[in-house]
Inverse folding.
């Protein structure tokens, strides 16, 4: 069960670029591509930012704070997508990608990272085929709001991996 939660906690960061591009299907394709690229850039920059923040706070506090900020930014992002405010969507998608829960920094696992990217792509393709344009954005928010707090609580209570799963780098 802990592996499924770890996968679900990685999903908000990997699904966001696909979700933003899919949500902007009614806008210009170049704008959707550019905003998706900004979300990808934010996702790649989130790992060094997560490592930096992990030095000053505990991994548990980092993951919980990032989940809260991510969900707030995602709600604003969904509203901006519905209003087709492309400049605001660009800023919010970059911010949400930077604030994606740093599960891949706290507990590195390349196999789960690859699985999360593949699952994100499959989910985006399926939602695109059934014309559910905003569903991946909602899935991002639900995954961050549900899986990250449960995962942190399970780790802090000692279930399965215990505190070893949330250790600081270098300690």
């Amino acid at each position: 069960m802990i592996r499924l939660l770890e996968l679900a906690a990685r999903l908000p960061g990997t699904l966001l670029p696909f979700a933003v591009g899919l949500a902007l299907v009614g806008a210009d394709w170049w704008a959707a591509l550019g905003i998706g690229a900004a979300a990808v850039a934010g996702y790649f920059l989130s790992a060094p930012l997560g490592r930096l923040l992990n030095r000053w706070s505990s991994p548990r506090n980092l993951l919980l704070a990032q989940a809260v900020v991510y969900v707030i930014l995602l709600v604003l992002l969904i509203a901006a997508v519905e209003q087709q405010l492309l400049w605001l969507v660009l800023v919010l998608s970059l911010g949400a990608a930077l604030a994606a829960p740093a599960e891949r920094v706290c507990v590195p696992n390349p196999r789960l990272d690859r699985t999360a990217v593949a699952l994100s792509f499959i989910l985006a393709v399926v939602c695109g085929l059934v014309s559910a344009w905003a569903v991946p954005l909602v899935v991002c928010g639900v995954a961050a709001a549900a899986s990250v707090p449960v995962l942190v609580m399970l780790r802090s209570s000692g279930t399965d991996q215990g505190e070893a799963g949330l250790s600081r780098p270098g300690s």
Observations:
- Residues 2-161 form a domain with the Growth Hormone; Chain: A; fold (CATH 1.20.1250.20).
